[in-house]
Amino acid sequence: MKILIADDDRTVCQSLRLLFLSQGHDAQYIINPLNILEFIESYAPDVLLLDLNFSVDTSGEQGLQILKDVHAAYERLPVILITAWGTLDLAVQGMKAGASDFVTKPWENEVLMQKVQTQWSLRQTGVSTKANLLNELVGSSEAMKLARELLSKAASSEATLWISGSRGTGKDLLASIYHRMGNRSGLPLLKLEDSEEVEAELWGYRKGVFPGSTKDHRGLLSKIGEGNLQISAWESFSSGLQSKLLKVIEERKFTVIGSDLEMDVRCGWLATSHFHPDDSLETGALREDLYYRLAQVHIHLPDLDERREDMPELIKHFSAQLNAGERKRKLEESAIEWLSTCSFPGNVRQLKAYLERVWLLSEQYTLNIKELKKYFAAEDKPADLTLEGMEKEMIKKAIAQKKGNMSEVAKTLGITRSALYRRMSKFGIQHED
Fold first, then answer.
1. What pLDDT does 379 receive?
2. Which residue range or ranges hold the Response regulatory domain (predicted)?
3. Protein fold of 133-301
4. What is the per-residue DSSP string for 372-392?
5. Given this model, what pLDDT does residue 390 score?
6. CATH architecture observed for domain 2-125
7. DSSP H helices in 74-231
8. Mean pLDDT (whole number) for 363-375
9. Fold classified for 312-379
10. Are 301 and 138 a contacting pair, CB within 8 Å?
11. Beta 330-331 vs 366-367: how paired, if at all?
């Protein structure tokens, strides 16, 4: 796959290029956007990553004009916009002007790679038909057949959808497919990330309402328009906040914090959670009325160990994706069978990351069991040294030290109790208070 990056920040360009090269793809970047049409003609990229804000014009108008020029000259070239979290309005305008998708700074590499891979795959097939989109959910197990059936029904009817499953099972992928299959596909899909200021992020606020709030802040409910809004970890929200959100969903109106003006809500709603809703309903962490309003359709994605029959299919699927890059590898059938018996606690995400590591580090074209074992041992390391991994370990240690007293745990970590529960939900940490 050939990827072109257009951004006036050389550091961003070089970082993205290294990311794509590490995955076996070809990547080039351009600093001066004025030459972009000529560069596209000579390089012939499969996907374009386009920053909307250039130093000569931070309003985004230049970026939008470049997008329109590119779309007019190369209509079939997928364009993924790069925008800051505070300029999501530009992303919405960009989607209307012909962009295929967008990412916000700072992005997660895994999410970005998934978006690029999706756009490349859709371009290869020529059309994003319903069947093509459903086939992105790989697996022939009964659980995956049911997931595709329910997803198809939910998207065609625009029913509200609740997706549950452990970390790494594919909730964001399923949410993306639901969005792309529905009537809102040409509009943005925005996700509320883990935030200690949920109300401020959703409702927005007027200048001067909070200490240090020197300017108005537009919340997601203002920015989303008629797109889909995905919110995770509902069960970590207080009962009062859940009640407020239920009122917004049912009345389709909200008021910006610090304002008396009521505004309409026209978006669709998506809910995701690491825990099965039944567990949260039983403990009272999730309001029953909110759940039944948001879960007209509920899809639970099981752990990989619970659908082991899908492993060979997933391994072949990811292998084919990796072979689309410069580094080609071939897995022996015995290697696929052996790998299908291995445990991946991080589910599909960990399996994919493991195969990417093998493709990157192995010098062998034909991969047998002996070769795979080298990298499986390295992957199965005792500690996760990523920032998220260290944060997760800190929370688990604090819970153990404070013997499960969550108020003391939150105090030790220097965060609010609600923020602690959100982080626990994010990392899949289960503990009864």
1. 43
2. 2-120
3. Rossmann fold (3.40.50)
4. HHHHHHHHS-SS--SHHHHHH
5. 55
6. 3-Layer(aba) Sandwich (3.40)
7. 88-96, 109-125, 130-134, 142-157, 171-181, 198-203, 220-223
8. 93
9. Helicase, Ruva Protein; domain 3 (1.10.8)
10. no
11. parallel
Asked whether the bond before 188 is cis by omega within 30 degrees of 0, the reply is no
- Start-to-end Cα distance in the chain: 49
Residues in a beta bridge with 264: 253
Question: What is the tens place of the pLDDT at every residue in 146-159?
Answer: 999 999 989 888 78
> Distance (Å, rounded) from C-alpha 106 to C-alpha 335?
37
Q: Which residues pair with 163 in a beta bridge?
A: 272, 299
Mean pLDDT of 247-257: 93
3-state secondary structure of 116: helix
Instruction: Yes or no: say if 409 and 420 are a contact pair by the CB < 8 Å rule.
Output: yes
Check pLDDT > 70 for residue 252.
Answer: yes
How far apart are alpha carbons 172 and 191 in whole angstroms?
A: 9
Amino acid at 402: K
The structure tokens listed for 359 are 């493709």
The string over 234-261, giving b where at least 16 C-beta atoms fall within 10 Å of a residue's C-beta and e elsewhere, is: bbbbeeebbebbbebbeeeebebbbeee
What's the rounded Cα separation, in Å, for the pair 205 and 217?
5
- The residues, ordered by sequence, that sit 6+ positions from 20 with a Cβ below 8 Å of its Cβ are 3, 26, 27, 116
The domain locations on the chain are 2-125, 133-301, 312-379, 387-427
DSSP state of 368: -
pLDDT in tens, 199-230: 888 999 998 888 877 888 888 898 888 889 99
Instruction: Tell me what the pLDDT averaged over the chain comes to.
Output: 84
Do 2-125 and 133-301 have matching folds?
yes
Mean pLDDT, to the nearest integer, of 127-155? 85
Beta-strand (E) ranges in 181-274?
A: 189-192, 204-205, 217-218, 228-232, 253-255, 262-264, 268-273
Please state the pTM of the whole predicted model: 0.65
Q: Please report, rounded to a whole number, the percentage of residues in the chain having pLDDT higher than 90.
A: 32
The H or E element containing residue 62 is helix 61-73
Query: What confidence category does residue 88 fall into, taking pLDDT thresholds of 50, 70 and 90?
Result: low
Tell me what pLDDT residue 15 has: 86
Q: Give me the residue label for tokens 């970005």.
A: 112
Domain 387-427 is found in CATH 1.20.120: no
